[in-house]
Structure formats: C-alpha cells, structure tokens
Design brief:
Blueprint: H1 3-13, E1 16-17, H2 36-46, H3 59-65, E2 71-73, E3 81-85, H4 92-96, E4 98-107, E5 110-119, H5 129-136, H6 140-152, E6 159-160, E7 166-171, E8 178-184, H7 194-207
Antiparallel strand pairs: 1-2, 2-4, 3-4, 4-5, 5-8, 6-7, 7-8
Helix pairs in contact: 3-7
Length: about 210
C-alpha cells in the first residue's frame, strides 16, 4: 500500500467510532521492526507535508486499547504527516545521523502528534528533548531527569511526563541505532490523563513495524 492509498484509507476511517467495529494494523504479524534507514526514508517520503503517515499507525485501535470511546482519526483537512531530516552536520539530527517523522491524529477533542525518531548515533528520545520540554512545560532539571529515564527504559515500556501530555516508548530496531516513539498532546493539559497517554503510546509502539 503506497502513501496515496493510505491517504484514501485514512479519509475513509478518519472519524471511526471507537465503540464499534474492529481494527487491524495493516503491517501484519510478520512485519519487521523499523530501522533507522527506514525512518529516514519515511521522513523523506512525508517531506513538508503528506496526506497520510508513512507508518500506518492505527489510532482507533490504540484509543480502544486505552479504554476510550468516541471518535478517533486524523484532524480535519490538510497534511497529516511531516518529515524532518538533518539540514547540516552541525544540526542536532546531523550529529545524530537521524530523522524524525511527525504524524497528526485526533482522539475526541484531543489533538496529538506521534513522532517516530530514529538516530544512528546517540539516543532517539534525546533529539526530541526541545519538543518534549516545550509541550510538557518542564524546567531543565526536570527535563534532564525525564530524558534519562526515557532513554534507559526497556523497549515497549512507556514513560510519561508528570503532566501527562507527553509519553515516550523505546522501540525495537532492525540493525543498529536507536528508535523511539513520542506521543505529544501539545502544550498544556491532556484531558485523557497520564495513564491513558501511556497506554496509547504503548499501543502505537506495538504497531511500529517496517
């Protein structure tokens, strides 16, 4: 399924009722873990704006796994995915030899961004520290403690900021490097709560395959 096909699929299920039907991740049980090279390719594919996320995350299934009812999908019109790659050897992503894929979703009234960060050098959560600090409203010392905890967490274990609006999960990697999923509900508060933020992040991390 190419990105255009996924855009059509996303439009069809964008307002799916969480309480009805079933949802199956398109990657299938035999899909392999993501690779850093794969994240770079997906970020390039999304570029300055794409209609669908190159990683076919199933937000409906993730919301249902967190025990939510209502609606989930992509927010409104316009691009729903963006890619960020190194714009120079001295930039953060340049030093990490990595890329970040950003995919936008909505669960009921909450907008959220799902970042897939992949780096060949260093740690994937660390390159997202400025975004985590901004969205979570954390001071330098609190951010440092959070990033350290997130970087040391076991694969698949969600780590949630004290305010509950950012959750990170380290992912298995095909080959070398480090990959993490970061779910952010943006600046301010998350009406779904910290526990559900972690459950949503954990469910999406289970879908992150190449």
């Amino acid at each position: 399924m190419n990105i255009r096909d996924r855009a059509v699929l996303a439009a069809a299920v964008g307002a799916a009722l969480l309480a009805t039907g079933c949802s199956q991740w398109p990657g299938g049980e035999d899909a392999k873990p993501l690779s850093v090279a794969g994240v770079k390719k997906q970020a390039a594919e999304a570029g300055a704006g794409a209609d669908a996320c190159p990683v076919p995350y199933d937000i409906v299934a993730a919301a249902r796994a967190a025990g939510l009812t209502g609606r989930a999908g992509v927010p409104g019109n316009g691009p729903h995915a963006w890619g960020e790659r190194a714009d120079g050897p001295d930039a953060v992503l340049g030093k990490a030899d990595g890329a970040v894929l950003d995919c936008a979703y909505r669960i009921n009234s909450e907008d959220l961004h799902v970042f897939t960060s992949g780096v060949a050098k260093g740690l994937a959560v660390s390159v997202m520290a400025p975004r985590i600090q901004r969205d979570a409203g954390m001071g330098v010392s609190a951010l440092s403690a959070f990033v350290e905890k997130a970087d040391k967490a076991a694969e698949g274990e969600p780590v949630v900021t004290p305010g509950g609006n950012v959750a990170t999960v380290r992912l298995p990697v095909a080959g070398s490097g480090d990959i993490a999923l970061i779910v952010s509900f943006g600046e301010g508060t998350n009406s779904l709560g910290a526990d559900r933020a972690g459950e949503i992040a954990k469910a999406l991390a289970g879908q992150a395959r190449g």
